[in-house]
Amino acid sequence: MIGFLPAVGSAILAFLIFFWSLLAEWLKLLFVIPFQNTEILWIIVPIWLGWFFSEFFQEKHSTSFGNAISNGALALWVGIDWTRLIVNKLTGHFWVFGWVVFGKFVISAIVLAFGLLVIIEGIKTKKFIHFVGRIRVVSYVLLVFSPIVYGLVEVNGMLVLAIIIFAPVYYWIIEWIDIMTPNPKTFDEDEGSGSKAGAGSLNI
User: Fold this and answer.
1) Which of 45-49, 84-88, 197-201 has the highest mean pLDDT?
2) What tens digit of pLDDT does each residue of 126-164 get?
3) DSSP assignment of the chain
4) Which of 4, 16, 23, 113 is the 20 to 30 Å CA partner of 91?
5) pTM of the model
6) Residue 151 — left, alpha, or beta (φ > 0 → left; ψ -120 to 50 → alpha)?
7) For 49-63, 66-80, 131-145, 182-196, which range has the lowest pLDDT when averaged over its residues?
8) N-to-C CA span, the chain
9) Would you place residue 199 in the very low, low, confident or very high pLDDT band (cuts 50, 70, 90)?
10) What H or E segment, with its residue span, contains residue 145?
11) Is 149:82 a contact under the CB 8 Å cutoff?
12) Angle at CA 168, nearest 5°, toward 53 and 71?
């Protein structure tokens, strides 16, 4: 029993150190690395701005099919821009084709497919689009993968694990902010107009 408590304490300390390392990796990916490179800011800043205004002025409680389709178009466009970047880097001989560049092409293709999926299934009014098409989901995908595609961060197990583990944290922190903050006047005006017109939305 005497040796058990120190062992438990050491295990807890090791877990906390590991968790902090993951959190630091995640925060660095989102908020530090993008602002160390002016080239990526041209795509990161519009993503952040689009997320903020859409989240708090349009999707505070839910997203409509129209908003989701627009968000899908954003993912589609960013995927195209990533592909353009990769091709330009290759043709300019800044990058050499290999497994790393191939992985970036794969990420770009997945995001392109994701954007098309949201657009097509949103037009078909599929219910799951109310979740996967939300701006917070789309923006998270674009924000965490942009530094990887731009070659600003080395992909490793810690990074991938941090992206996966903190994805729901990102989602629910925004949800909590939405709950705690009052509705903007423009949102209430739109909701009132929509209810008078008989419009409805699905809360997620």
Assistant:
1) 84-88
2) 999 999 999 999 999 999 999 999 999 989 999 999 999
3) -TTHHHHHHHHHHHHHHHHHHHHHHHHIIIIIGGGG-HHHHHHHHHHHHHHHHHHHHT-SSB--HHHHHHHHHHHHHHHHHHHHHHHHHHHTTSS--SHHHHHHHHHHHHHHHHHHHHHHHHHTT-TTHHHHTSHHHHHHHHHHHHHHHTT-S---HHHHHHHHHTHHHHHHHHHHHHHHSPPPHHHHHHHHHHHHTT----B-
4) 113
5) 0.85
6) left
7) 182-196
8) 48
9) very low
10) helix 135-149
11) yes
12) 35
104: its two tokens: 């970036």
Q: What letter represents residue 145's amino acid?
A: F
Structure token pair of residue 132: 């996967």
Residue matched to tokens 């599929």 = 126
Nearest alpha-carbon partner for 163 in 89, 107, 87: 107
